[in-house]
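Feature request, filed as a ticket because there's no other form

It would be nice if the structure record came with a short human-readable summary line next to the tokens. Right now we just get the raw output. Example of a typical job, pasted below so the devs can see what we mean:
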Amino acid sequence: MALKFDRDPQTVTFTNGDVRLAGALFEPEGKGPFPAVVLIHGSGPQKFDQPAFIVRTNAFLKAGFAVLAYDKRGSGNSTGELEISDYNDLARDAAAAVAFLRTKPEITPSKIGFLGRGEGGWVSVLAASHDPKIAFVIMSSGCAIGPLEETLYETRRALRDSGVSPDRVEQAAKFKMALWEFDRRVAAGGGG
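Raw output as currently delivered:
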């Protein structure tokens, strides 16, 4: 049996600059205004109706929360180019979702938070760091360290598990760090 949302969605769109984000707003039973949560995607292309979001939406609805879930930029009905976007772009998308919710009379503006799944844990914390009025951040399958540290850990672990010598493991980690530094310089406009 396929998972389905417990409530009918209200189709919504909102913008972050030139990017149009499309998704759904779900309201719990009863009379608002309601607290709300914005669901933030994991890595890669993601749509608002993925199974993990359906399960979490239904749980929040039962707890009396409204839920905003949207297609990640460049996915589903949302515009933008995910391949050239960074965490700041994604955090601004999440902030645009909050700004949209704050215009809705059925939402309590002071009780809006994020649930970040996987990569969304980093994105939600980044978005919340720019908005002191965010009421909460929930990290679901999130990582408590930064992306570089997580990547280096995973690289070292995978190579060790494959039987690679300790010297080669550290060479690979140094190479990965050099690639990250190169990417940071290019992204900052400093060239390669």
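Something like this underneath would help us a lot:
The chain has two domains: 10-140, 147-187.
The helical segments are 51-62, 87-102, 119-129, 147-161, 166-187.
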